């Protein structure tokens, strides 16, 4: 495995590159393009990708630990069985991204575009999804306990069997959410009822 440490690039075009099984440690890439790149099984640790484009890139089985992907774009990329551990992925766009088998351990996914994302049966405990767009996402049987879902968009999301207990749900528009089959705690249930005009004493 080729290893690269403390490298920094700005505005570089790495589109179509073959970086399979490469290891990146504390590297920084700002406004770089990885369109259609082969990044399968790449390992990143403590790296920073800022406003980078990964459209159509292959990141299958990649491993990322304490890496930041800030305002990056992953349109139609593949993250099949990729793993993100304590990563910061704020503001990134996952439009039409393949997320089957994705593993997310903790981390900050606030403001991310995860519309229609397939996250069924995922263990997402403790992940920050503040103001994340989860419209139409498949969260069936996902574990969202202790997540921060403050002002997240859950309209039309599939929540059958989803465990929301202990999650921060302030600012969620419950009127737009179908919670049938979801598991909620008492405080969440009260907030849900109040959104429909019920007086809970």
Structure, explained:
The chain has 201 residues and is mainly β. It has 2 domains: 1-107, E3 ubiquitin-protein ligase SopA (Pectate Lyase C-like); 109-201, E3 ubiquitin-protein ligase SopA (Pectate Lyase C-like, 3 Solenoid). 5% of the residues lie in helices and 15% in strands. It has one helix at residues 186-195; strands at residues 3-5, 8-10, 23-25, 28-30, 43-45, 48-50, 63-65, 68-70, 83-85, 103-105. The strands form 2 sheets. The chain has a 6-stranded parallel β-sheet, with no helix packed on it. It has a 4-stranded parallel β-sheet with strand order 2-4-6-8, with no helix packed on it. The longest helix is centred in the C-terminal third of the chain and has 10 residues, at 186-195.
Draw up the topology in text.
Elements: E1 3-5, E2 8-10, E3 23-25, E4 28-30, E5 43-45, E6 48-50, E7 63-65, E8 68-70, E9 83-85, E10 103-105, H1 186-195
Parallel strand pairs: 1-3, 2-4, 3-5, 4-6, 5-7, 6-8, 7-9, 9-10
User: What's the architecture of the largest domain, going by CATH?
Assistant: 3 Solenoid
Distance between the termini: 62 Å
Biggest sheet overview: 6 strands, parallel
Q: CATH topology of the largest domain, what is it called?
A: Pectate Lyase C-like
Give the gist of this structure.
The chain has one helix at about 185-195; strands at about 5, 10, 25, 30, 45, 50, 65, 70, 85, 105.
